[in-house]
Amino acid sequence: MILVSSCLAGLEVRYNGTHCLNSKIRQMIAENKAVAVCPELLGGFSTPREPAEIVGGDGNDVLDMKAKVIERSGRDVTELYIKGAYNTLRIAQELQVDTVVLKEFSPSCGSSSIYNGEFQGKKISGDGVNAALLKRNGIKVVSEAGLAGLLLMVHKGR
Fold first, then answer.
1. Which InterPro entries does this chain map to (predicted)?
2. For the stretch 113-152, what's the b/e string if a residue is b when 16 or more beta carbons lie within 10 angstroms of its beta carbon?
3. Cα 78 to the chain's mean position, in Å?
4. Rounded to whole angstroms, what are the CA distances from 134 to 6, 27, 72, 102, 107?
5. How far is CA 95 from CA 1, 19, 36, 41, 99, in A?
């Protein structure tokens, strides 16, 4: 069993009420091989919501209280992102998940690249809050771009 970002499963949970459907992920859910989660909804957000970015670092810095997650209007929503990450971790642990597929660039789910905190569409290397927490707890995190390699490993029985 793996966890996947709900937006990749076709659920309209992104900040702007859209999804990023990945047909392979939707198929995995239909076959009961994956469970969809949205850390932002688990943190208490609704859909749609104001866009947010990490300011001052990445998800690891947020977890270490050295950076914040800020909405475009300036509202600090760090605690909600941390809450969502811990709720996602709890679900992953309960399901004994060892791999998670998350949506790249998100302040929650980015697993190698996130927006830089200036709301200008610029990206930097780094993890989102949820991805960072899952990695700290020994869970393999890949983006939708890494899904092909993951599926190959699953197919080979690894």
1. 2-thiour_desulf
2. bbbbbeeeeeeeebbbbbbbbbbeeebbbbbbebbeebbe
3. 15
4. 16, 24, 26, 11, 14
5. 7, 24, 12, 19, 11
Residue pair 63/135 in contact (Cβ under 8 Å)? The answer is no
What domains, with CATH codes, occur in the chain? 2-50+81-111+127-155 (3.40.50)
Q: For residue 123, is it left (φ>0), alpha (ψ between -120 and 50) or beta?
A: beta
| Count of CB atoms situated within 10 Å of the CB of 44 | 13
Indicate the pLDDT class of residue 147, thresholds 50, 70 and 90.
Answer: confident
Tell me the pTM: 0.93
Beta strands in the chain (DSSP E): 2-5, 34-37, 52-55, 68-71, 99-102, 113-115, 123-125, 140-143
Q: What is the signed CA dihedral for 81, 41, 87, 109, rounded to 10 degrees?
A: -60
- Strand ordering across the sheet containing 140-143: 34-37, 2-5, 99-102, 140-143
